[in-house]
Amino acid sequence: MAFYCLLVVLQNLMISHCLGLSGETHHKINVLFVIAHPDDESIFFSPTINYLTANAYNIHILCLSTGNMPCHIFYTKLYDQHKSFLCHDIIACKMSCIRLVQYSGLDGFGQVWSHDLLTEIISEEVISHDIHTIMTFDSYGVSGHCNHRDVHRGVVKFLQTNSERNIKAWQLVSLNTFRKYCGPIDIWLSILSAKRHRSKVIIINEQPLKSYEAMAQHLSQWVWFRKLFVSFSSYTYTNTLQRINP
């Protein structure tokens, strides 16, 4: 455990500089996570969120759907539940602000999301909260989920149409199946990969148990296979980030 803590400290020393988050007082830097579903921040981004919150950055979450099928009979009830779960996440992870978007065109698996609409929503959030840096999925979306991939395209389009804002954006790198499920072993593999690809930044989770605590707030999703995923997923222990160059 002591060795793990030492590794975390050494690896995380240069993260602020690499991500372009240095040079200002931490509490003045606003970081926006753009995600597709209400549990994405817990399943995939917890190492990065834990690192930034531990260092007093302002964390904002823009969730672009409620995670429900648009014609679900309990749509409104489930929307309220997901909003409640995300509010619990704010308390558990010390996030600053959250916005859960409810559009009929932004729900349902397999439905193509309008990139123009996503760009408009992201732009509103960036302006209203003076966002400096965006974190989101890469073009594959970690799991290949079509909504994750649309979110990436929406962020890229926002960057292309708002280049004058000089917003920095980082994507969570998708891993192959072996690395995705090798748990903490992927810490070493990620570090080795980053040494070969200098454009990548590795963030090691200082408190992996917080991933469980955050995911456990999503009661409807906290079933046995989700528990197994969080236990063995490398995204619980480390995130590999790469700059988005639109």
Summarize this structure briefly.
Belongs to the PIGL family. This protein is an alpha/beta fold and 246 residues long. 46% of the residues lie in helices and 15% in strands.
Topology:
Elements: H1 2-12, H2 15-18, E1 30-35, H3 40-43, H4 46-54, E2 58-63, H5 75-93, E3 97-100, H6 115-129, E4 133-137, H7 141-144, H8 146-161, E5 168-172, H9 177-180, H10 186-196, E6 200-204, H11 209-216, H12 224-232, E7 238-243
Parallel strand pairs: 1-2, 1-4, 2-3, 4-5
Antiparallel strand pairs: 5-7, 6-7
Helix pairs in contact: 5-11, 6-8
EC number: 3.5.1.89
Organism: Brassica napus
Keywords: Signal
Kindly report how far apart the N and C termini lie.
40 Å
C-alpha Rg (nearest Å)? 17 Å
Q: Mean pLDDT across all residues, rounded?
A: 79
Q: Which series of helices and strands comes N to C? A: HHEHHEHEHEHHEHHEHHE
Strand order across the largest sheet: 3-2-1-4-5-7-6
Q: Give the structural class.
A: alpha/beta
- Helix count from the secondary structure assignment: 12
The main pleated sheet reads as: 7 strands, mixed
What spatial form do the alpha-carbon principal axes imply? globular
Strand content: 15-25%
Query: In terms of per-residue confidence, which ranges show pLDDT below 50 for 5 or more consecutive residues?
Result: 69-94
Q: Which percent range fits the helix content? A: 40-55%
Number of strands: 7
Protein name: N-acetylglucosaminylphosphatidylinositol deacetylase
Signal peptide: 1-20
Pfam families: PIG-L
Family: Belongs to the PIGL family.
Explain the overall architecture:
With 246 residues, the chain is α/β, with parallel strands linked by helices. Helices cover 46% and strands 15% of the residues. It is built from 12 helices and 7 strands. Strands 3-2-1-4-5-7-6 form a 7-stranded mixed β-sheet, with helices on both faces. α5 packs antiparallel against α11 and α6 crosses α8. It is globular, with a radius of gyration of 17 Å.
